[in-house]
Specification:
Chain A: One of its GO terms (biological process) is D-methionine transmembrane transport. Chain A: Pfam families: BPD_transp_1. Chain A: It comes from Aeromicrobium endophyticum. The complex is a heterodimer of chains A (219) and B (342). In chain A, 80% of the residues lie in helices and 0% in strands. By secondary structure, chain A is mainly α. Chain A has one domain: Orthogonal Bundle (MetI-like fold), CATH 1.10.3720. In chain A, α2 runs antiparallel to α3, α6 crosses α8 and α9 runs antiparallel to α10. By secondary structure, chain B is α/β, with parallel strands linked by helices. Chain B has two domains: 246 residues, Rossmann fold (3-Layer(aba) Sandwich), CATH 3.40.50; 86 residues, ACT domain (Alpha-Beta Plaits), CATH 3.30.70.260. In chain B, strands 6-7-8-3-9-10 form a six-stranded mixed beta sheet, sandwiched between helices. Chain B has a four-stranded antiparallel beta sheet with strand order 2-1-4-5, with helices on one face. In chain B, strands 12-13-11-14 form a four-stranded antiparallel beta sheet. The two termini of chain B are 49 Å apart. The chains are: A mainly alpha (219), B alpha/beta (342). The interface between A and B is medium-sized, with 21 and 31 residues.
């Protein structure tokens, strides 16, 4: 336990970096995922703005990106980051990769939640003279809001998982602390504390997400 | 004045599966709706009535034909112009389709936002509408806190928000119990008489047509098979489909099974009288029978009242001297339409 106290600055930095990366994944990746997921939904055959080419291209893209294990995306995207002048073993690169991976993951979650919205309500809005874009903005997304919040909360676990893996390129997340000072130095206590902190982060996220969704869904 | 006019309108949906048959939902329909009337469109599910009503507000574009609403051919308009037209056409639905993410107030506000009505006018307009439908006390309730009838009232308030000329009701009472149905129909009648809004009601319940419609249109397999004033169609249906619908409301001529049942207990001569001409009173008809010393008993049928005019079919068992019965049958036949029951 002395070692944990000794490593306090490492843990603090790990926590901050983890939260920073997770926030990037959840908010930036989430926003992009929301856009892709909405596009997936509206372009469906009987969707709000049916478009076969858009639907096919997005589906193929999402289906290609989603199965690639995160560790490999981390490596494969290194040249892309470098092209933008970001080092391939920096926190910047971890942000790029996490945003990229979470966007595609969240896109499917968003699509699934939008499918669950009652099409009758969308039709009613169209019958009231709303444009397609207005229907998306003022009916589709608000009606799906509660389940979208739950979907994003669910994605949070996967995103925190990604921050851990980012440790392998030397990004100072809690995963890095656990790998470097726990695993490689055979110090189980350090590993356990890192895990504990991650569990607490996820718990808080889950609790906040549930509470917010309950408020929106009114049940 | 003709408010809605369809000329040779068809709607064909592409096959749902590759290699499947296209679906001809509406075929070559001609229909006019006069301003201020209530038209009931009846048909079994799949007859094309829901598609037909969606052609009127262009939620579904017609495949061919011309479709005039208030003088404008909708088939020539673009999406932006159609959105304007839809502000003039309210619609209510079987499942109410209220926005779950908004309160009653928010639901009624939605079309006002779409129409660009200034926020300052919302308050008064929404209170007026909620008062009109009798839900002023539920303004801040959420949809799930309302009963089915209340939800439909919100649907009606919402549909009326932009002061439309036309109200389309798609099976608006089919999810409601009989008592609530009556309340909602009464409200629709009030919408028609007090606000002068033309109403097109889609339904499979003849009771709904009987209660509020002026005119009835019967659809089968995408076509209009019969149409006319409600009393005429109900008292003298010509087409098979229409007869089946009318029979759900009015006991007409007994069918084979019913005759068999009647025969078991009634040995006399069975005669069905059809009353539809009000100039002939029932008592005059019965006097002809009684006057000839023939006894009779009512064994089947009923009299229905449509907007204060009655019609119906009564099956009588006649007993007595054979010659007298013959003469009675002939005399009655001169007054009303009769059918001899085998």
């Amino acid at each position: 336990m002395d070692r944990v106290v000794e490593l306090r600055p490492e843990f603090v930095e790990g926590l901050i970096v983890t939260l920073r990366l997770a926030a990037a994944g959840l908010f930036v990746g989430g926003a992009i995922g929301l856009a892709i997921g909405t596009a997936l939904y509206v372009s469906r055959t009987r969707g709000i703005v049916p478009s076969r080419p858009v639907s096919v291209i997005l589906n193929v893209l999402v289906n290609i990106m989603r199965p690639i294990p995160f560790v490999l995306i981390l490596i494969v995207l290194q040249p892309v980051s470098r092209w933008f002048g970001i080092s391939g073993i920096s926190e910047g690169h971890a942000v790029v990769t996490i945003v990229f991976a979470s966007a595609f993951g969240i896109a499917r979650i968003v699509e699934q939640n939008l499918v669950a919205v009652d099409p009758g309500v969308l039709e009613a809005a169209r019958a009231m003279g709303a444009s397609r874009w207005r229907v998306v903005r003022t009916v589709l997304l608000p009606e799906a809001c509660g389940s979208l919040i739950l979907g994003f909360t669910y994605a949070l676990v996967a995103i925190v998982d990604m921050t851990t893996l980012a440790g392998i390129i030397g990004v100072h997340s809690l995963g890095y602390v656990a790998l470097t000072y726990g695993l490689r130095q055979f110090d189980w206590t350090v590993t356990a504390v890192a895990i504990l902190i991650i569990i607490v982060i996820v718990q808080i996220g889950q609790f906040a997400g549930n509470a917010w969704a309950r408020k929106v869904l009114r049940r | 004045m003709t408010l809605i006019e369809l000329r040779g309108v068809s709607k064909t949906f592409p096959p749902t599966r590759k290699g499947g048959e296209p679906v001809h939902a509406v075929r070559d329909v001609d229909l006019s709706v006069e301003a201020g009337e209530i038209v009931g469109i009846v048909g079994y599910s799949g007859a094309g009535k829901s598609t037909l009503v969606r052609l009127v507000n262009a939620l579904e574009p017609a495949t061919s034909g011309q479709l005039f609403v208030d003088g404008t051919d909708l088939t020539t308009l673009g999406e932006r112009q159609l959105q304007k037209v839809r502000l003039d056409i309210g619609m209510i639905f079987q499942q109410f389709n209220l926005l779950q993410s908004r309160t009653v107030w928010g639901n009624v506000a939605y079309p006002l936002e779409v129409a660009g009505v200034p926020k300052a006018e919302h308050q008064r307009r929404i209170s007026d509408l909620l008062n009109f439908v009798g839900l002023a006390d539920k303004a801040h309730a959420w949809p799930e806190e309302l009963s089915g009838g209340q939800k439909q009232r919100v649907g009606i308030a919402r549909a009326l928000a932009t002061s439309p000329k036309i109200l389309l009701a798609d099976e608006a009472t089919s999810a409601l119990d009989p008592e609530t149905t009556v309340e909602v129909l009464r409200l629709l009648a009030k919408v028609n008489t007090e606000l002068g809004i033309t109403i097109v009601v889609i339904t499979h319940e003849m009771d709904v047509v009987k209660t509020i419609a002026d005119r009835v249109v019967v659809m089968e397999q995408g076509r209009i098979v019969e149409q006319g004033p409600v009393f005429e169609i109900f008292s003298a249906p010509r087409e098979q489909a229409t007869r089946r619908f009318v029979a759900t409301l009015v006991d007409a001529v007994p069918d084979a099974v019913e005759i068999e049942g009647l025969r078991r207990t009634h040995g006399g001569r069975l005669l069905t009288l059809s009353f539809r001409d009000e100039s002939v009173s029932q008592s005059a008809v019965f006097a002809e029978i009684i006057g000839r010393g023939v006894e009779f008993e009512l064994v089947f049928g009923g009299i229905e009242d449509v907007r204060g005019r009655s019609f119906g079919h009564l099956t009588l068992e006649l007993r007595g001297d054979a010659a007298a019965v013959d003469e009675a049958v002939r005399a009655v036949g001169a007054l009303v339409e009769t059918t001899e029951v085998a």
